[in-house]
Each structure stands twice: as structure tokens, then as C-alpha cells.
Design brief:
The protein has helices at 3-17, 71-81, 92-98, 123-135, 141-161, 163-175, 188-191, 196-206, 222-233, 286-300, 335-350, 356-365, 376-379, 383-396, 400-409, 412-418; strands at 32-33, 39-44, 50-57, 83-84, 103-107, 112-119, 137-138, 212-218, 256-261, 270-277, 312-313, 322-329, 429-435. By secondary structure, it is of the alpha+beta class. The strands form three sheets. Strands 1-2-8-3-6-5 form a six-stranded mixed sheet, with helices on both faces. Helix 2 crosses helix 5 (141-161), helix 5 packs across helix 6 (163-175) and helix 10 (286-300) crosses helix 12. It is globular, with a radius of gyration of 22 Å.
Length: 437
Amino acid sequence: MTNRIKHIILTTIIIGILLVASNLSAETIEPYKLDNGLTVILRSVPTANKIAFVVLYNIGENHDPIGKSGMAHLLEHLYVTAAAGETPARDVMQFTRHYPAGWNAQTGTDYTVIAGVVEAGQFSKEIKDVAARMNDLRITEADIKREVPRVKQELTNMYGGIPMLAGINHARAQLHPIPQGGQRGGAMAHIQTITLDELQQFWKDYYKPNNAILIVAGKFDIEEAKKSIHENLSQIVPGKLLPEPHPKSKPKTGSVNKINVQPVVPNATGVAAIGYAAPFPDTEEYVPFLIVYSRMAYALQTQFQMGKAQPIFYPPLDDPTTLVLQSELTDEENVDAVLKELDQRLQAALTPKLTPQEKQQTINMLALLGTVDIPDTQWGENMYSLAFSIGRQYQLQINGKEIRDAIQQVTDADIENLAKTIFAPEKRATVIIELEN
């Protein structure tokens, strides 16, 4: 699966699972740091029989060198497949077979996540691999030759091969353009110029303890875990401070962008998409925006089908930069009528009077932001989502209790203000994905 499909699946799972969460006694998890700067967060779940190891780096696509768009994405591929420690180089199928209980490797705008889920009792073995990939990753030309075609295929899917992804990614590209021809996931013209020396140096400089968070969730003894983490990770040399994110470019909004694509999936249709840049968590629009998103997500959740246009895209942890509304286009449909329907969908979420039930609905739905404590028994074996949510809350400096309290204070005027700011017509990115004949 491509990274963007995994985003969609996680968002859909969240909507389904969190409807049952109602216990608001959130547990406080105290991070601690090793002397080399590594942040560690441990979450013991005695009822589990798995352990998720999640490494979150504070580096992502926004840190790609100018003219080298895709550096972080390519390095993410190499991070999990190149030789490290006693583990030889492997292809992606060998990597996935090593983690039958679950894994992830994806690059976001401001982060990279590397994750594996193992059986309880494998803590010591897995922490050695975590340390090896941070300290002894041995990237070769053969690794690059193996992984560049995989990156190219993912980009093909993201920007054309899978129309529903193309709608999302082209809308995002209009809202958050990257300088000098870059794009999310990377531009192949840039990726093909990246050298082995550049990749090795990029890893050596930045994929190090002082730029990383290690989150472990599952069945383990906390004191033994601390000891093992210290023994394996404390001696790794810190890396350099992260480079400055690339400068922001002016959004390309206010017009309709028509794109012809050749789908690689059967029974594909065209897609109409409208997108908006989402507010950051530290802005006054953020919490009212979450209520508007919740309204639309609840109304649209039954429409989602894998392989079809995703009615709403806004994964608040994976990609909190962009909200996109989509609808399929058939040959008989009028594009203007479909775009009008998408706008009406948005207006229906902006105009109703707020109710206490809607506020609680938003609190429940956003439990992975920490607004609700999901009991251990409800997590089941989904230790990855638990660990990832804890880590991204920390990275984004999100306080779930504060969000929960702020939701209760939102007024109708706050929602109405969004129509003039975040959702103003001139701030809209409109994309029409048409299929080539």
C-alpha cells in the first residue's frame, strides 16, 4: 500500500472505533530524555500481547533540500530496507514479512515514522534493531537502485494512478506548493539526481537521537524497558540540528485545475475535489475547525469505500495541513453541479447552530488527539495507533484535555468566522481529475 492509502485507512478506522469511547479520565504519559537527546515515551498495556515500537523523527518533506524534493521519502524507504547491525539488506516484502503483526514507514510534511509491531517478549531483540538503524545503517548503491522504482510507483499512484489520491494530492500541491518544482513525496526529476553520498550524509546528520522520539506501547515491564533502552541507545552520538524548513510559497487557489490521468486501478472514475489549508493547532481557528470537520465526517462516513473517491480527507495526526472534499465524476455528470454539491456539503457544516451533542461528538471522534481516554481493552491489539497517536500529540504539542475544554467553549460566531477565514472562497483549491481516453 502507498503511504497515502494508509492515511485513508487510519482515518476511517478512527471514525469507526472512537464512536464507542466515552471514558474521559485521560492517562498522563511523562516523556523522558536520554543524555544524547532521544525522547522516550513508554506506555505499558498489560492486557496486550504485542508491542509497538514507533520512532518518530522531527524531519519530513518540508526539510528536503531545495532541488532535492523526495530526499526524506527515499531515505524512509532505505531506512527500513538497507543493512543495519546484524540484519542484511532486504526488499520491502522481506521487511513486511518480518512484521506480520503490523508495520509502517511513511514521510509526512514535518515527520518521518518508522514502526514495527512484535510479539510480547521480543523487546530486547527489537530494541537492538531500533538502535542499529539509528547508529549503523549501511546504505549502498544497490539499495538505491532497488528503492527508487518503488518511490516512482508510489508517486504514480499518488498523482494519477489512483484518481482518489490524485484529487487529494493535487489539491494539497495547490495549497502548499514546494519551491523549484518540488512536490509531496518527491519529484522524480529531483530524486534521480540524489547521490549515495548525499543520502548517507542526510541520514548521518539528522536521523539521530536528538531529532527523534521513541514510543513503545504494549505488554512490557517499564523498568526493564528503561534499562534496555539505555543500554542500546544512550551511546549513539546526537546528530545535527534540523535544517530550516523550505520557505513557504504562495498558494495557487481561486481557479479550477484540470488534470488528465491514466488510472492503474480497475473501474476508476474521474474525481472532483475542493481543498482548504487547515489551521495549525496553535491558532484560534483550530478548535472550531475541528467541529466543522467532525460534522462532515459523521455525515459522510457511510459513503467511504476503498478504491472510491474519499468524501472527506483530513487525518488530524497524519496530515493536519489540508482538508479535501471529493466526489466521483462520471461521463454523464456536470462538473459544475458536482462542485456545487461539494460546496453545499461544506456550507451544511458551517451554518447549523451548535448543540451540546455535537460538541461531545467532536470530543469522542478526536480521541486520538487525547480528548478521550480509550480504555486498554478497546485498543485490543492496535498498539501501533496507540503509540503513533501518543507520539504525534507530543510532536504537535497538542493537549487533548485543553482541546476538550476548548470545544465546549466554541460558539456559533466562531464557526461563522471560519467561512470568512479558513473556508473563504478565494482560499479554495479546486481540482478536476479526468481520465485519459
